[in-house]
Amino acid sequence: MTLTKINEGLTVLRGDKIRGGLKKLALLEYLPQLNHTNFAYAGTVFGSGGWALATACEELGYKCTLYIAKSKHTPDWIADLNPNTCTLVWVEPRPVEHIKSEIEITRPDLYMLPLGFDDPAFIEATAKILKNLLSEQPHQIWLSALSGTLARATCLAFPETEIIVVSPVKHVGDCGHAKIIFAPEKFHHPAQTPPPYPACPYSCAKLWQFVDLHTPNGACIINVGYK
To answer: Is 138 in the same domain as 211?
Structure first.
């Protein structure tokens, strides 16, 4: 993981430089706590959770099954899945909550992870990693939010920092004490103003249009990951 300086006042935490992204680092600490070795996750092609889980399970020697809603868009990370440790199941498009509920009934042999990994233990693991990666507390932090899990982890790690989240969806999850801005693009539409570094066009890239490039006090962008 590296920090890239955009200018004197702005840096980017580059989760895109990690295979699996920033969330994989937290999953490597979180999954062994669950005392299971075969996991399931419901998601979409526009999120990063499935890829993070797949790469974490590969490194830990676990297995996982990803239930992903079909879409015209196919992200590059799909081709990076290891078939020895990850099974990909395409399902008909519908809310991920419905996909998760159905799989919990039909596949009781799998440990179904919460949407967005929304679990206090995962949030604590993420906060710990963020504090280690950002040894100097930023004056301001920017990130994208869907479930709000990463936002709450950031709030936990840096309770005194101004945290601003940009949500690509209208109904965002609990984001702690963070200020919320809603991106103008529809969720399934890419960012109109992409950043000068690789970022998911459906989530993290959408915050760039709002960032003050001339902040004098030191701001940091958390880029979750992209492939």
So the answer is: yes
Number of domains in the chain: 2
Closest CA to 217 of 158, 144, 141, 130: 141
pLDDT per residue over 30-69, tens digit each? 999 999 999 999 999 988 899 999 999 999 999 999 999 9
Residues 227 and 80 sit within 8 Å (Cβ to Cβ): yes
Query: Quick one: 101 and 127 in the same domain?
Result: no
Of 117, 143, 173, the domain-final residue = 117
C-beta separation of 39 from 58 below 8 A = no
Flag whether the pTM goes above 0.85: yes
218 token code pair: 């030191």
Helix axes 49-60, 22-30, angle to 10 degrees: 50
Domain that holds residue 126: 3-18+119-223
The answer to whether residues 67 and 133 belong to one domain is no
For 187-209, write each residue's pLDDT tens digit. 989 999 999 999 999 999 999 99
Q: Which helix (H) or strand (E) holds 58?
A: helix 49-60
Residue with tokens 């590969």: 58
CA distances, 95 to each of 10, 69, 99, 101, 170 (Å): 36, 8, 7, 10, 14
Adjacency order of strands within the sheet including 162-167: 3-7, 10-14, 219-223, 140-144, 162-167, 179-182
